[in-house]
Design a protein that fits this description.
With 250 residues, the protein is α/β, with parallel strands linked by helices. The protein has one domain: Aldehyde Dehydrogenase, Chain A, domain 1 (3-Layer(aba) Sandwich). Helix content is 49%, strand content 18%. Helix 6 packs across helix 7.
Length: 250
């Protein structure tokens, strides 16, 4: 039997302050460097694979299910590490204009993002929830509920000894039913990626988020195992498009 911390509103507010301070530095890292850091996390997870498999089994999964979950989490980290220095090439553009100007559009991170992990997927749910936002240069607050809380604590140990800058990934263990209103009403949060929760909770999040035009992304019905099949498009869920005009020189 284990006791898991139940995050409070104060824990969440503290996490937002830390994430906001860390986000500019993470955004300024080169895309290649962010990819290196994510790949290193995958290597560290692989080195502790047996531990995460045992923890997944302790939550009721069979040996084969636990092995598949941990292996998929490692593969997903490697997959998104490869997209770090490629998605901008895919989604940026030079726009045609009928004037003597260059017009460029490029994606930029939206800022601080809350990621609610998928409830039943353990480690894979945590990794799938956080990766698209992290790749894009955002800082996140990652909520792990009951089924993924044990994996979240061990995953936090991995992150602590990795090269991820402090404050970029902040993990809370707690209940969405107690925290979702605080998530949606906080004025210094830019987006919420919802991977779990009831229809009533999601509707409440949408209503409260409207007060500061917070972006809400619903990923409750998307299986974590299908994330790689979506390509880089989930990255753009938490990106803004910046358009720059520049005069044509002679």
């Amino acid at each position: 039997m284990v006791n898991i911390c139940r995050a409070s509103r104060k824990d969440f507010r503290n996490a937002v302050v830390v994430a906001r301070a860390a986000q500019p530095g993470w955004q300024e890292r080169t895309a290649y460097n962010r990819g290196q850091i994510l790949y290193r996390i995958a290597e560290m997870l692989e080195g502790r694979q047996a531990q995460f498999i045992a923890e997944s089994q302790s939550m009721g999964k069979s040996r084969s299910q636990a092995e598949a979950e941990v292996s998929s989490a490692i593969d997903l980290l490697v997959y998104y590490a490869g997209w770090c220095d490629k998605y901008q090439q895919l989604f940026s553009s030079v726009n045609p204009v009928a004037a003597p100007y260059f017009n460029f559009s490029v994606p930029e991170p939206t800022g601080v993002v809350i990621c609610v992990a998928h409830q039943k997927e353990g480690l894979l749910g945590l990794v799938a929830a956080m990766l698209p936002s992290i790749v894009g240069g955002n800082a996140i607050i990652l909520l792990a509920e009951k089924a993924s809380a044990i994996s979240a604590i061990s995953f936090a140990e991995v992150l602590q000894t990795s090269d991820v800058p402090g404050g970029v990934i902040n993990i809370l263990t707690g209940l969405l039913e107690e925290l979702h209103e605080h998530f949606a009403s906080h004025m210094d949060v830019n987006a919420i990626v919802v991977g779990n929760g009831t229809a009533a909770q999601f509707k409440n999040i949408q209503m409260l988020a409207a007060n500061n035009v917070k972006r809400i992304i619903d990923r409750r019905d998307i299986a974590c195992t299908s994330f790689a099949e979506e390509g880089p498009y989930p990255i753009m869920d938490t990106q803004e498009i910046k358009t720059t005009w520049h005069p044509v020189g002679k």
